[in-house]
User: Which sequence fits this backbone?
């Protein structure tokens, strides 16, 4: 673990005592662990000094609107200064506090990252304005994520049938904000919306008893440093491989064609997961300009040991239906045929290769086949978004 | 009277616990409970009972009629 984030339950700054106590203990035991904090921003202005004092690496503020007219449809009420506020007044206080908090973080030199939940029909168009507002106040990243609304989550939006955005709607919005600032499609530091990285929700592993046990572990700075160096070396190798593949392509001439590729990966930037074991696909968009990570798609495990396989494949197809190909380390014959039928090319020849490089070489071949008229380029349909991590609108 | 938490509705979110001015709220078996002997209905502290104001589930922190109304000590 190199980054520790506190995100909940509820808002960490609603219970600042506990949150900062945790930071204090960690700073003592493992001084090189980066601390980060996730908040709705309501109490943020009161705590910027403490956050600065603890050397918190970055603070994530969830900002879903900067206009109380819109905010009143997102937040039914807030609890602020020992009172409950509702409606437009609640949203007005919230947005003032959030933006003030952001300005104070910037002034204090603490990195601020903004998360926004895209709620179709409520704040989807407005998020471009949010993007502008947070950028001008010094946020270093803006991450727009889809509303995950399943009735079983019991949230307001899940219950009243508010739908989440489709993959295409999300991407259009992210692209329209991208010119304005750094858009984050995936945080490499920590996704402070769920414990653990990519896929697995590891909250269950971090029960109080386990954390007590963990604190017994002697903190070993040397091993950690070696590990960090290894990670950095891997990263450089990856970048070099991708650059080489790109340079190779530049003499092929430019084209407007772009395709999306789903990748089954366990991490390390490689195509290294079996199709049947993937609970999540990483989605890359590739064109002559290079490859770009655009998001994750959660799926149900395809291999569940004998049952349910017929039902899960269509849901996997729906989740990656906007992709031309899916890169896997391995894939069985049955799903391979069905994917082909759905128009998605199952590719296992890049097993254990770097993703960026593989995506570019696949794209080169694809382009060559289009140019030789062996195949006709078509734009694929839309896809469903489902994530494991529960993301609340608050 | 004191306030009480309807256990079947409480999500155990812990939002109320740090807000109570009398430290009357604590966890028990995954949900939160109010000690009626400590609860002052927030009288003298705040205009609204804090647990009611902060609880995300409506009608979860409610008046407990089993106790007489809190009297501000003379
Ligand atoms: S009414 Fe006030 S004093 Fe009583 S439990 Fe709730 S917060 Fe505490
Ligand atoms: S705020 Fe409400 S739901 Fe949360 S712990 Fe207290 S009583 Fe339970």
Assistant:
């Amino acid at each position: 673990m190199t980054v520790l984030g506190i995100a909940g339950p509820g808002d960490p700054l609603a219970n600042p005592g506990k949150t900062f106590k945790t930071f204090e203990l960690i700073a003592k035991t493992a001084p090189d662990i980066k601390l980060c904090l996730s908040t709705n921003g309501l109490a943020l202005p009161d705590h910027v000094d403490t956050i600065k004092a603890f050397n918190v690496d970055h603070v994530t503020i969830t900002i879903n609107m900067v206009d109380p007219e819109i905010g009143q449809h997102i937040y039914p009420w807030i609890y602020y200064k020992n009172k409950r506020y509702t409606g437009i007044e609640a949203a007005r206080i919230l947005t003032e506090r959030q933006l003030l908090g952001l300005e104070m973080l910037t002034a204090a030199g603490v990195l601020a990252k903004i998360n926004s939940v895209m709620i179709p029909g409520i704040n989807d168009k407005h998020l471009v304005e949010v993007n502008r507002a947070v950028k001008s106040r010094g946020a270093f990243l803006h991450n727009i994520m889809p509303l995950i609304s399943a009735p079983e989550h019991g949230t307001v939006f899940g219950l009243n049938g508010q739908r989440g955005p489709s993959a295409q709607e999300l991407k259009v919005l992210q692209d329209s904000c991208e010119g304005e600032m750094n858009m984050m499609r995936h945080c490499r530091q920590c996704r402070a919306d769920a414990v653990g990285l990519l896929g697995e929700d590891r909250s269950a592993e971090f029960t109080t008893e386990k954390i007590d046990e963990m604190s017994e572990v002697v903190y070993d700075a040397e091993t950690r440093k070696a590990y960090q160096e290894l990670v950095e070396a891997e990263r450089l190798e990856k970048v070099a491989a991708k650059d080489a593949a790109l340079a190779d392509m530049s003499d092929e001439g430019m084209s407007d064609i772009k395709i999306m590729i789903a990748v089954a990966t366990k991490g390390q930037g490689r195509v290294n997961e079996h199709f049947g074991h993937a609970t999540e696909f990483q989605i890359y968009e590739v064109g002559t300009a290079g490859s770009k990570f655009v998001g994750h798609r959660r799926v149900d495990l395809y291999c569940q040991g004998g049952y349910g396989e017929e039902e899960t494949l269509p849901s996997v197809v729906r989740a990656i239906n906007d992709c031309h190909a899916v890169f896997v380390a391995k894939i069985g014959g049955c799903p391979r045929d069905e994917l082909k039928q759905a128009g998605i090319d199952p590719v296992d020849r890049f097993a254990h290769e770097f993703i960026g490089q593989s995506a570019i070489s696949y794209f080169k071949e694809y382009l060559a086949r289009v140019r030789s008229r062996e195949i006709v380029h078509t734009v694929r349909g839309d896809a469903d978004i489902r994530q494991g991590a529960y993301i609340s609108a608050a | 009277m004191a306030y009480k938490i309807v256990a079947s509705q409480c999500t155990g979110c812990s939002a109320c616990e740090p807000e109570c001015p009398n430290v009357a709220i604590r966890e028990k078996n995954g949900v939160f409970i109010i000690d009626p002997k400590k609860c002052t209905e927030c009288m003298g502290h705040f205009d609204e009972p804090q647990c009611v104001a902060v609880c995300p589930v409506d009608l979860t922190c409610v008046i407990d009629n089993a106790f007489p109304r809190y009297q501000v000590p003379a």
